[in-house]
Amino acid sequence: MIMHAVMHLPVAVEKDTTLRLKRSVEATGSFPRSRGFTLVELLGVLAIIAIISAVTLPNIIEIKSTSDATAAGYTISGLLERARTYALANNTYVWVGFFEEDGTQPSQNPPIIGNGGRLVISIVASQDGTRYSDAAINNTLPAVFGANDSSNLVTLIQLSKLVKINNVRLVAVNTDSVTGNIPARPAVASTYQMGEPVGVSPNNSSGAFALHVGDSTGNPTTFTFPLTSPGSGAPQYTFTKIIEFNAQGEASKIAENVFTGPGPQDAMEIALDPTHGSVIDSPYSGANQNKAAIAVQIEGLAGQISVYRP
User: What CA–CA distance (Å, rounded) separates 207 from 112?
Assistant: First the structure.
């Protein structure tokens, strides 16, 4: 009997619910509805969302920009590792060139430099393992690759497609001191830092890294993209900021790893700041002009590549 009553209880509940619903419809002429949000409540929620967005959006943009520069730093580190590995494996010389152009404009020929914002990288190698002459190193020698000059008879081959990285600037922000660098890292002399100080426009031809030691003019030993020879037309890019890897894996600025002059440097540095277009982001400009989002250092004798982040 008890089981029989329990089994029929849901039917009784269902009938009771149906009866109450029927009475409600008869009394009001419509089915009862659950209470929704009023217009005032919805407007209040939207206002709260707008306030939160206004507070957090600048931080979101900063995080995105910094992550872009960080990714760019690791991309550069990977390219340098590949270049060094190729030099070792093929008993040859490899050169990695860097060029900055206006990130607010499409790439064109000739390139627009502006205030930078786009980094262009090209990697080339000596086809037969030869190198330019060490007989004279000055502001005119060794000559440009492809010039068929006796000081530089090297035939180049392109090792990879042109690499373009947007929304970054090369910056020289290492204090050349063991303290004060952000991120913390070893000191590097200004002439071995790839970029320019914050607030100074990119200089692809006569910046500090593009100079021979003791010279006030740009390094004449350059290569182009596409690889050209005299009379074949104007190339799109001419690279003067160049890192060289030799067959032993040592690294240097081009035309400085020589027997008759300076040998491999203690270190070279490629530091990056994030940009929007061609403008360096505020967390890295103004009072923070000594701050880099990421820095890549290349040791000379060992060729070891290290990445430093805040």
Answer: 17
Q: Could you tell me the residue ranges of all domains in the chain?
A: 63-308
Q: Tell me the whole-structure pTM to 2 decimals.
A: 0.78
Token pair, residue 255, equals: 């035309």
- Phi-psi group of 5: left, alpha or beta (phi > 0 → left; psi -120 to 50 → alpha; rest → beta): alpha
* pLDDT single digits (tens) 248-295: 999 998 888 654 545 666 789 999 999 988 899 988 987 778 899 999
Q: Give the N- to C-terminal CA distance of the chain in Å, as an integer.
A: 78
CA nearest neighbour of 170 among 73, 30, 49: 73
What is d(CA 161, CA 176) in angstroms, rounded to the nearest whole number? Answer: 34
Largest CA distance in the chain: 114
Name, in order, each residue with C-beta under 8 angstroms of 117's C-beta and a sequence gap of 6 or more. Answer: 100, 101, 102, 103, 104, 166, 167, 168, 169, 275, 277, 278, 279
